[in-house]
Design a protein that fits this description.
By secondary structure, the chain is mostly beta strands. The protein has a single domain, classed as 2-Layer Sandwich (Alpha-D-Glucose-1,6-Bisphosphate, Chain A, domain 4), CATH 3.30.530.20. Helices cover about 10% and strands about 50% of the residues. Strands 1-4-5-6-7-8-9-3-2 form a nine-stranded antiparallel beta sheet, covered by helices on one side. Strand 2 and strand 3 form a beta hairpin. The longest helix is centred in the first third of the chain and has 8 residues.
């Protein structure tokens, strides 16, 4: 597989710093208002190479060179550099309903498997409300 890497250049959005809600011990939800229309936000969050620019604190994303846009079944690996070793997570896109909903399953060694969902809603005439939910699930086989 031909792999493309990308380093994060800007700080990612910290969804968990604002409006954090915990529905139960297995789910966390947060929302953020973005001063951009939903189609522009959708383009950003579905571009594989830009995931580390906005999602969590990952440093690199590896993906097949021909996977420029996320689609159901897309696999990518997130990498976070740490002293003493890197954290990695293998992700697989499980749902995509343009331009409203994106979801993937994120598996990291030694950690529970997480379902990650993003829902986009128009906010006023030019903004977007981005809802982000993480649900911890049982490990699954890729």
């Amino acid at each position: 597989m031909n792999v493309v890497g990308r380093h994060r250049r800007t700080a990612p959005v910290n969804f968990w710093a604002r409006n954090r809600q915990r529905a139960d011990k297995r789910t966390q939800s947060a929302s953020i208002r973005i001063a951009a229309p939903p189609d522009k936000v959708w383009d950003l969050i579905t571009t594989v190479a830009s995931i580390t620019d906005w999602y969590d604190t990952w440093d690199n994303v590896e993906h097949a060179a021909d996977d420029e846009r996320l689609q159901v079944g897309t696999l990518f690996r997130l990498i976070r550099h740490r002293i003493g070793g890197d954290d990695t997570a293998l992700c697989r896109v499980t749902s995509l309903h343009a331009p409203r909903r994106l979801g993937w399953v994120q598996y990291a060694s030694q950690l529970p498997t997480v379902s990650v969902e993003f829902d986009l809603l128009p906010d006023g005439t030019t903004g977007t409300l981005l809802n982000h939910t993480r649900t911890w699930i049982e490990p699954i086989d890729y």
